[in-house]
Amino acid sequence: MNELVEKVAGPTYYWLTVKAVRDETPAAKSFVLVPERREEALFRYRPGQFLTFRIPHENGQIMRSYSLSSAACNEPHMTICVKRVDEGRGSNWLNDHVTAGTRIEATQPAGRFVLSDGDAPLLLIAGGSGITPCISLIKQALIESDRNVKLVYANKNEASVIYRETLDGLANRFADQFTYQRWHDDARGFLTAEDIGAEAVGWEAADIYICGPEPLMDMAENTLAAQLGQEKTILTERFVSPDDEAANPAPVAGFAASPCSFRLTLDGEDYEVPYRPEQTLLEAATTAGIDVPSSCTEGHCGTCMAWLRSGEVSMASTKALSKRNIERGLVLACQSRPATDAPIWLDFDF
Ligand code: FES
């Protein structure tokens, strides 16, 4: 077991300056972001990761996570793309108020929706603004490897396709390596499970990435797990917010318990983490000085997802987890408190 040092819990925010703003579609803008020079090293990122922003709001501040669409291999600055959402407090504030020169607070890059090791092909299913982390992965894979890549990208219509020119350019430049299937609902109807299943034929060995609207993600994840095997690694990226009622299932109820400690596994190391009443498992781990993956700390981003190998927890919110995640025993550490006295073992190396 490792020696633990107590420290204060909670994410750290840094100032970024918006260097440029670009219209991508009538409803989506890209924002190019630059950290303070002395903090540049803190903002090195892996393709597919995201930043959590602290956004001014009439009731104080709200936290929102947005994926990076840039790839460090060919772009000097971080870029996010944000699409307007009905009643979306964070996305609409960014679209309405942020211009070149605006300063905005964000956490360091985080997230597990990153390129897998090895040379397996990649199959990506994206919908709408879900293209944002996917295009980052695609650029990196095409420019820096020989991996074959297939993208199925669904949108309402031609006008709502984000990064259309970039994707067309990649399809031309990497014609032998990149298969690009654009899907417009107004011409072909919504993507169905049969369509997804057909697109995956011949890509059984691929690593799977899915990002988009909740119903598309659930359908694609369930279809591909059933077709390619439940053990298949399928990475999904879902950001939800209090604005998003549909993605807000009831919290998992449970009886609150207060063990003295719990077991935690991270990067091959085992820790016995002291636990105080009322703490979340993430707060206990952070207080103990363990640098577990986390970002929003509010149950929106899924970064703190871990496998509950034993014990039971009560989660204040499960909205960043898919049904399949929950069935596999995954929990959000930032939302979890012990529910019974059964010994808890939380594994981040799942
Ligand atoms: S840190 Fe974002 S969901 Fe837990």
Walkthrough of the structure:
The protein has 350 residues and is of the alpha/beta class. The protein folds into three domains: 93 residues, Elongation Factor Tu (Ef-tu), domain 3; 116 residues, Nucleotide-binding domain of ferredoxin-NADP reductase (FNR) module (Rossmann fold); 87 residues, Beta-grasp domain (Ubiquitin-like (UB roll), Roll), CATH 3.10.20.30. It has eight helices and 18 strands. The chain has a six-stranded antiparallel sheet with strand order 4-3-6-1-2-5, covered by helices on one side. Helix 6 links the parallel strand 10 and strand 11. The longest helix has 15 residues. The N terminus is likely disordered. The site of FE2/S2 (inorganic) cluster has 13 residues, from loops.
Offer a few descriptive terms.
Elongation Factor Tu (Ef-tu), domain 3, 21% helix, 3 domains, single chain, 350 residues, binds FE2/S2 (inorganic) cluster, alpha/beta, disordered N terminus, Rossmann fold, globular, six-stranded antiparallel beta sheet
